[in-house]
Design goal:
Chain lengths: ~70, ~500
């Protein structure tokens, strides 16, 4: 496993690990109570992180192995 | 016939037409039938994996949960998007191995990895056991949607039967190609309907999304955060982790992975899919609006909140489109589940019992199995009561028992052997079955079934014991496994 894939742990640790601090109603962000915003925020972050991993993952270089 | 029923019927016929037409130009062999000749690119794989997000369970259950349990409902998109993160690392490995060994089903994968037919049989039985309740939930959801959206003109039972006939027909003819084509129609419909409802309803009733949440906060603030006990943070974290782990072990998801045309397709999908789970936020908005607008739905009736609110808000023709979208969210996942169960059983049982069976024979048998499973699911749908909820937790807990065997099979040198893997799985499964039966007694003292659906501690405990047994038995049987290897080597030499 190459080092860049370690980034895949970030959504697990960030989203679930910090949950105790995010379990609240206020402040409202984008019209959503904070906890719901937290869920939405990490969905977007998961995508961003996966994009970064994909870009730097050596497995995606060259042609698709058969 | 009312206008909403007419619209639903048109979409049903359209789905059947697309599903059958999908076969065109394909010479149907087992590989085409089961995994589309491993030819699906990013677009189809996206739709088929995304098909698992919008099943009737999330459509009705997601809004229903937000309605009756509040923030606990967030576990659904949470485990799904984390499963996608995990998939980036996990599924290309599965795909690569399966491609190299021409594997088209989950039981075959395990049989091949552990060089054991019994392992394949165990996985096939476990997979089918886990799938039938899922298919039942789709058929039951379909019945609810069509009967509500037709203003009672069609009974839930009649709707379930019609749905089962349609899905069985096109799966038998086109295999997974049929699912792929109907998935296009389904995802387009569900996108339009969910976004429209999720925005229109909060603005129509409350003047915006934040005002709606503020109204809920004033009346029932506990609906917006996780509880201190019961459906608490620790419940949330353990459920999310367990389900994220089990997501790609569900036979139908596993099979969709195999139908991909390459590893990169799967990785690319992992990037886009978490964004797609954002759409579930709109489903929650509808559920929260329903808390204020149609209070008083008790227990399982919470699942009706989305449809009831829509019926209160819109003209029948709009309800027709919502009903059609709901219908499709049942048909597409049910079709992939039928395929997965049937191909798994054909490959791991029929092929072992009748090794001389030709491709044509296998295709005939897998079609017969599809009909058989459909009929069983339909019978359970019509006769089964609320026990469905218990079946649901059971099937997820059951399938996750495959996780240790799967993860250990990934590295080049597997630290466990087939004896350990099989006893571990059996131990886990027995604990789940026992605990579920015990829970049935507990459930009678608990108000409302949904709490039971989500009590996943059973699965976690079973999984831990499973891991323990797997490693102990593997260590104890190490010499047997080694002797066997030597025997194999000797056989090869001689």
């Amino acid at each position: 496993m190459n080092a860049i894939k370690l980034l895949l742990f970030v959504p697990f640790l960030g989203f679930l690990g910090l949950l105790p601090y995010a379990n609240k109603i206020e402040p409202y962000i984008l019209g959503m109570p904070f906890l719901l915003f937290w869920v939405a925020f990490w969905m977007v972050m998961a995508s961003v992180i996966l994009m970064i991993v994909y870009k730097f993952d050596p497995d995606n270089k060259g042609s698709d192995p058969e | 016939m009312n206008i909403s029923l007419l619209i639903i019927s048109i979409f049903l016929v359209l789905a059947l037409y697309l599903g059958i037409k999908a076969r065109k130009g394909k010479d149907m062999d087992m590989e085409q039938f089961a995994v589309g000749g491993r030819g699906f690119g990013t677009f189809f794989i996206f739709l088929l994996i995304a098909g698992e997000i919008y099943t009737t369970f999330t459509f009705l259950g997601g809004s229903g949960w937000a309605y009756s349990k509040g923030a606990a409902a967030y576990y659904v998109p949470a485990y799904i998007f984390l499963a996608y993160v995990l998939s980036y690392w996990l599924v290309p490995k599965i795909w690569r191995y399966s491609k190299r060994h021409s594997i088209i089903s989950q039981p075959e994968y395990f049989a091949s990895k552990y060089k054991s037919r019994s392992m394949g049989m165990i996985v096939a039985v476990l997979g089918s056991l886990a799938l039938v309740p899922y298919i039942v939930i789709q058929l039951k959801g379909l019945g609810i949607i069509v009967s509500e959206a037709s203003y009672g003109a069609i009974s839930p039972v009649a709707a379930s039967v019609i749905g089962a006939v349609v899905v069985t027909t096109y799966v038998m003819i086109s295999g997974i190609h049929g699912s792929a084509w109907t998935a296009i129609l389904k995802d387009f419909m569900i996108l339009v309907v969910v976004i429209f409802l999720g925005i229109y309803i909060p603005f129509h009733y409350f003047g915006g999304i934040q005002p709606m949440f503020e109204t809920v906060q004033a009346a029932k603030p506990e609906m917006l955060v996780l509880a201190d006990h019961g459906l608490s943070q620790s419940w949330f974290v353990s459920t999310v982790l367990l389900n994220a782990l089990g997501f790609y072990l569900l036979p139908q998801t596993f099979m969709v992975v195999l139908s991909s045309n390459g590893e990169r397709t799967l990785r690319k999908n992992a990037i886009a899919l978490p964004l797609y789970t954002l759409l579930l936020l709109f489903v929650f908005f509808i559920g929260y609006a329903a808390i204020m607008e149609i209070p008083g739905l008790q227990g399982a009736d919470g699942d009706l909140s989305l449809l009831r609110l829509a019926i209160q808000t819109f003209d029948p023709w709009v309800i027709g489109f919502i009903g059609a979208a709901g219908l499709l969210t049942a048909l597409v996942p049910a079709s992939v589940m039928l395929m997965a169960a049937s191909v798994g059983l054909t490959n791991s049982f029929f092929k072992v019992l009748v090794p001389s069976a030709s491709e044509t024979h296998q295709l005939i048998v897998s079609r017969l199995i599809i009909i058989g499973i459909s009929i069983i699911a339909l019978i359970v749908t019509v006769t089964g009561g609320e026990a469905l909820a218990i079946l649901n937790i059971m099937s997820y807990s059951l399938i996750t028992q495959l996780a240790p065997a799967l993860f250990c099979s990934l590295p080049k040198n597997n630290i466990i052997n087939k004896y350990g893997a099989m006893t571990g799985i059996l131990a886990g499964v027995l604990i789940v079955l026992y605990a579920t039966i015990a829970d049935v007694k507990v459930a009678t003292f608990l108000p409302g079934i949904p709490q039971v659906i989500n009590d996943i501690s059973t699965g976690v405990i079973a999984l831990l014991i499973n891991i323990l047994v797997t490693f102990i038995v593997s260590a104890l049987t190490k010499h047997i496994a080694m002797q066997e290897n030597e025997m194999n080597d000797l056989n090869k030499i001689s």
